[in-house]
Amino acid sequence: MNAETDRGAAREPVIEFRNAGYRLPNGQAILRNLSLTVSRGETLALLGRSGAGKTTALKLINRMLDPSDGQVLVENKPTTGWNAIVLRRHIGYVIQDVGLFPHFTIEQNVSLVPRLERWAAERTQARVKALLDLVDLDFNQFAKRHPHELSGGQRQRVGIARALAADPPILLMDEPFGALDPLTRGDLQREFQKLQQRLGKTIVMVTHDVGESLLLASRIALLEEGKLTGVYSPPGFLAAKEPVAAAYVANFRMYEEAERANEHR
């Protein structure tokens, strides 16, 4: 396995997989022998095709699933030792279809966790205003709207704001920009990159998009058929000689060349 790491790898570990695995009740292994550490402040991309085990690994972090084998640790404590509700409020979660409550206003969606944590009303509203500003949505214009009144890109921004509402140190993102059109996706990816530079959260992001991994991640963990095949810095991934990684890079370069050709037509 490629052991190449970025400058953040020597930082304090926040998430650790120790030979972690997950099997379905029928015994089918979805994830096997995953050993991986995520350091404080880094963005780790879990890259792989459908069925590689990426989302399963993500769900093991916030205890939506418990490992069948091995351990997953968050802040040096096994997830099975955490109260599941406390753990999930310690971790922001952004998914592809956003998952906003349709009958809630944008303000109610973003303020959900602070209200559950019994924040004072003034503190909660100030936090919502700050977060909508952070994701470039004007509070006066959007706070009282409902999700169906927003575009896909705007809803995704609200989803990010909601995940950050209680200022969690960890953020999990499952194909967060995958359902958006290419232009909106590119804009949001670049804005999120700037946001991460400002906030310094520890982020684990599931994606099948090589370009997204190269743009947003400090390290890339490549999974194939439920197994970790390598961990790379973005430059190391582009130079990788291992067959699985090299195939991803070759396909990525072909796609880039095709895109450039289309632009010149």
Word description of this protein:
A hairpin with a 5-residue loop joins strand 1 and strand 2. The protein has helices at residues 54-61, 84-89, 106-110, 112-116, 121-134, 139-142, 152-163, 182-199, 210-216, 234-238, 243-263, and strands at 13-23, 29-39, 43-47, 69-74, 77-78, 91-95, 170-174, 202-207, 219-224, 227-232. The protein has 11 helices and 10 strands. The protein is globular and about 55 Å long. It is α/β, with parallel strands linked by helices and 265 residues long. The strands form 2 sheets. Strands 6-7-8-3-9-10 form a 6-stranded mixed β-sheet, sandwiched between helices. Strands 2-1-4-5 form a 4-stranded antiparallel β-sheet, with helices on one face.
Number of helices, counting only DSSP H or I runs of 4 residues or more = 11
Give a count of the beta strands, DSSP E runs of length 2 or more.
10
Overall mean pLDDT stands at 90
Distance between the termini: 41 Å
Strand order of the largest sheet: 6-7-8-3-9-10
What low-confidence regions span 5 or more consecutive residues with pLDDT below 50? Answer: 1-9
Could you spell the SSE succession in H and E letters?
Answer: EEEHEEHEHHHHHEHEHEEHH
Q: Which structural category do the helix and sheet elements fall into?
A: alpha/beta
